[in-house]
Design brief:
single chain; alpha+beta; 3-stranded mixed sheet; 61% helix
């Protein structure tokens, strides 16, 4: 036990080795203490590798502690708290206790010589190699830091000289620029004065010309008003023309339907009296359920035409306003027609098969629905 305590003193107190008595800033000093502790702990535990009593602890050391210690660097060492927890939780409690006892004493100095004042005792050979390696590594770091600081100072001095030289040249250039600007402003002032005189003369001539010509702005305004009026009249004419074209298309469609009707074969008679109506008849206005209550000889406000009236039995087909019928499909066709092909883009309505109606108690009741196709 006494040997372990002495070795722990060596590990902690000698972890701050260095190369000179030069003061080290506190943050760097503390990092190096932690780094040295990691290296001494690693070297010390390795002495137990062949000890059978420590086999289990060595296994935990290999799996958990050793990777952390090997990853420790002077810039990013394994912190004391973390190292203490690793030792305590993995079978090295005695080393952790000694490490904790000596930790505060270890961090009171500020030079490497402060930490080399403790004698290595009789166990010097155990950690001597580690001490030498650490000493060399930290000495190299101090030298590297000093060289870097010296280089930075030299660079800073050169920059200051350059800055001073640039400032002197800048002042001369600034003075020269001021002189040039004063000269330019003088030339500009003379040119501006001459320009003002020319502008006054031109304004005077313009006023004289305006008095001779009159007010051109008023004439332009009147021409614009006339042009707008003509454009409005032209738009109204175009609108009237579009309406005429639409009416013409509807007339052509009705004519085509009449031609189709005249060319279609007459259906065979199923009995009863022959057709009595020579003039086309239409079911007036809205249907009620599956029946029509009124008929008319005028197709206006009608959606279905009666055909082949045989004294109470007749055929019917669609003949109304296409756009309205598409927009009001359900109201127009439900219960009297079977529809197909409907979608948002349809533009035409075609009667694929006429329906049949029968006169009952003054109502024309649909007995066979017409088949309508949207296109």
């Amino acid at each position: 036990m006494k040997k372990i305590i002495r070795l722990m003193e060596i590990m902690i107190l000698c972890s701050t080795i260095g190369c000179s008595t030069q003061n080290i800033d506190k943050a760097t000093y503390n990092k190096w203490v932690d780094y040295a502790n990691s290296k001494y702990v690693e070297a010390y535990i390795e002495t137990f590798r062949d000890n059978p009593k420590k086999a289990e602890a060595i296994k935990k050391y290999n799996d958990v502690i050793k990777p952390k210690l090997q990853a420790s660097t002077p810039d990013k060492p394994c912190p004391f708290d973390k190292l203490s927890a690793l030792l305590k939780n993995n079978g090295w409690t005695q080393i952790e206790e000694n490490l904790a006892r000596k930790f505060k004493e270890n961090k009171q100095g500020n030079t490497i010589d402060d930490l080399l004042a403790i004698d290595m005792l009789d166990d010097k050979e155990v950690l001597e190699d580690t001490k030498i390696e650490l000493k060399k590594e930290l000495e190299d770091r101090i030298k590297e830091k000093e060289e870097k600081e010296k280089t930075e100072k030299d660079v800073k001095k050169q920059d200051n000289r350059r800055s001073s030289s640039k400032q002197s040249r800048s002042e001369k250039q600034h003075l020269y620029a001021i002189c040039v600007m004063v000269l330019i402003l003088g030339v500009f002032a003379v040119a501006l004065q001459k320009s003002r005189k020319r502008i006054r003369k031109l304004n005077k001539k313009i006023r004289e010309l305006n008095q001779q010509i009159g007010n051109p702005n008023q004439q332009i305004k009147e021409l614009n008003q006339q042009l707008q009026k003509k454009e409005k009249q032209l738009q109204e004419k175009e609108k009237q023309l579009q309406e005429k074209e639409k009416q013409l298309q509807e007339k052509e469609k009705q004519l085509q339907e009449l031609k189709t009707e005249n060319n279609s074969p007459e259906p065979e008679s199923t009995g009863g009296t022959p057709e009595t109506d020579s003039q086309p008849q239409y079911f007036l206005t809205k249907k009620i359920g599956n029946s029509f209550h009124r008929i008319s000889a005028n197709p206006e406000d009608c959606f279905f035409r009666m055909l082949n009236n045989n004294g109470g039995c007749a055929d019917f087909e669609f003949c109304g306003n296409v756009e309205y019928a598409i927009a009001n499909k359900n109201a127009v066709f439900d219960e009297v027609c079977e529809t197909s092909g409907y979608n948002r883009n349809v533009r035409h309505i075609k009667t694929e098969e006429r329906g049949k109606v029968t006169l009952r108690d003054g109502k024309w009741v649909v007995t066979t629905k017409a088949k309508i196709k949207f296109e």
